[in-house]
């Protein structure tokens, strides 16, 4: 029998919502893994070292090395891979596509605004200083719009984003939405109740603490 090593997750020292998604699902699935935390605030970031770029040419965490050494990048692709065949991804063809719909929504309409707002609020040197007023306004408006889309979806009597089960669609959206109120976005009742439901799931874990002490999550 060949030696099977644990999966290895490249994460960051500061709390990353994208890495948190992966850690949360690994926790739900009770999959053991090892971690390397990279400093993404150094200049250049440790994600841009020759060694790391050889593994993930896009130079970003999360990056997961699977048991056989295969490297998988992009948080939502990692969620999709890990969830296949488990309760966290529906078998039904349409519901699987609906899960993908929310994963793509998160990456195109939510994360580029809410996650970027969080990063600039706590960690980016200079914060928002290099953006003009209209760019800051756009970040804010688009982030709020994405959260409002979530409120509309859940507000029509749904408990979860896809079907009637907690899935990777919820995990992907939870990561940054859970920090959104803290950074000034408005969270209405249905999203608030959904955040609480996620937090009641078995093996739910908190996002890691911020070693810089700037982010209070
Ligand atoms: N679309 C990617 C985004 C990953 C991403 O932006 N990662 C950030 C941390 S949250 C990073 O690695 N930044 C370091 C850098 O860009 O060098 C995903 O979902 O995994």
TrEMBL record:
Keywords: Transferase. It comes from the Eukaryota. Gene3D superfamilies: 1.20.1050.10, Glutaredoxin. GO terms for molecular function: glutathione transferase activity. It holds the Pfam family GST_N_2. Residues 92-217 form the GST C-terminal domain. Residues 6-90 form the GST N-terminal domain. It is an enzyme of class 2 (transferase). The keyword Hydrolase does not apply. The keyword Lyase does not apply. Belongs to the GST superfamily. This is Glutathione S-transferase 5.
């Amino acid at each position: 029998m060949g030696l099977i090593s644990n999966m290895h997750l490249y994460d960051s020292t500061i709390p990353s919502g994208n890495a948190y998604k992966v850690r949360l699902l690994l926790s739900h699935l009770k999959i053991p893994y090892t971690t390397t935390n990279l400093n993404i605030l150094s200049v250049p970031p440790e994600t841009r070292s020759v060694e790391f770029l050889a593994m993930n040419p896009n130079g970003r965490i999360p990056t997961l090395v699977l048991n056989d050494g295969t490297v998988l990048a992009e948080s939502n692709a990692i969620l999709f891979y890990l969830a296949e065949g488990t309760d966290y991804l529906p078998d039904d063809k349409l519901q699987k596509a609906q899960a993908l719909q929310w994963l793509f929504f998160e990456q195109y309409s939510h994360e580029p605004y809410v996650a970027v707002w969080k990063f600039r609020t706590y960690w980016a040197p200079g914060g928002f200083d290099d953006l003009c007023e209209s760019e800051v306004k756009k970040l804010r408006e688009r982030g709020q719009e994405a959260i409002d889309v979530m409120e509309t979806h859940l507000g029509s009597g749904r408990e979860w984003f896809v079907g009637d089960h907690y899935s990777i669609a919820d995990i992907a959206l939870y990561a940054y939405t859970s920090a959104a109120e803290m950074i000034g976005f408005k969270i209405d009742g249905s999203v608030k109740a959904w955040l609480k439901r996620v937090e009641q799931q078995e093996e739910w874990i908190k996002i890691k603490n911020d070693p810089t002490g700037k982010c209070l999550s």
